[in-house]
Amino acid sequence: MTEEDYEVISLKISWAILSISCFLLTLPAKYLLHLLPWRPQPIWLWPLVPPVVILGLSILGFVMGWIGVRFSQRRSLAKVGMFLNAVVLTIITFMILLWFYIVGSR
């Protein structure tokens, strides 16, 4: 056996992996927020909290994916992370705008 058989395993967490991790955190975010004991004071704001948290996570994931495209060696994986977070950003933005339209029209 040579010395190359016993190399040190290094786990490099890249920007692309962090971007996809943020996307995966957006999926159960609504259900995880219901487990928190905290609720906003005006009761009509509670339906807006999960989309805002999901929006923040997807913006963070999109930025991490963008950094991964610019500076990482795994550009294709970073592009996948950017695409997934962009889809979530689009859907959540439309949901928030629709919520304001419905609440504002009453």
Largest sheet: none
Percentage of residues in helical conformation: 55-70%
Task: Determine the N-to-C terminus distance.
Answer: 76 Å
Low-confidence stretches: none
Structural class: mainly alpha
Topology as H/E string? HHHH
Average predicted confidence as pLDDT: 85
SS elements, strand count: 0
Based on CA inertia axes, which overall geometry fits? Answer: elongated
Strand content: under 5%
- The radius of gyration over CA amounts to 19 Å
Helix count equals: 4
How is the topology of this model organized?
Blueprint: H1 15-26, H2 29-33, H3 49-71, H4 75-104
Structure, explained:
66% of the residues lie in helices and 0% in strands. It has 106 residues and is an all-alpha fold. It has a domain at 48-106. The protein is elongated.
Properties at a glance:
4 helices, mainly alpha, 66% helix, 106 residues
Please provide a brief summary of the model.
This protein is mainly α. The protein contains four helices and no strands.
